[in-house]
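Final report, Chapter 2: Outcomes

The project's central promise was a pipeline that accepts a single protein chain and returns its three-dimensional structure in a standardized token representation, suitable for archiving and comparison. That pipeline is now operational. To close this chapter, we reproduce one record exactly as it appears in the project archive, with the input sequence first and the structure output second.
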Amino acid sequence: MQLALNHGLVIGAVPLAVGVVLVAALIGAVWWGRRRQARRTTPPRPEEQPRLPASGPVAEVSERREPAEVPRDGDRLTPHDMPGFGNQGTRTAKDQSPPANEGRSGAFGSGGPSA
């Protein structure tokens, strides 16, 4: 009888102890999360928001550029062998008209009839 009483006490006490530890961990997590939230910076006020410049929005520039020519003297080139150490810029192309599409449909296929 004594052994059965101790066994029943253990079966009831272990889940109770696990439950108490779990509730304490959850309360601690909520407390820690609220503390972190309180330390966070507030979002900027409307007067602190960025404003457009007086000249208005910046316009997008669309132009064609001429590629930088690669020297072709037969040897393998590395970036430090290139003029300007591989950072040579391009220049504006003389012909600014858009390239001709030449009957192609776009990225998927040749634009011809399907087979």
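Archive annotation: The chain has a mean pLDDT of 78.
This record, like all others produced under the grant, will remain available to the consortium after the project formally closes.
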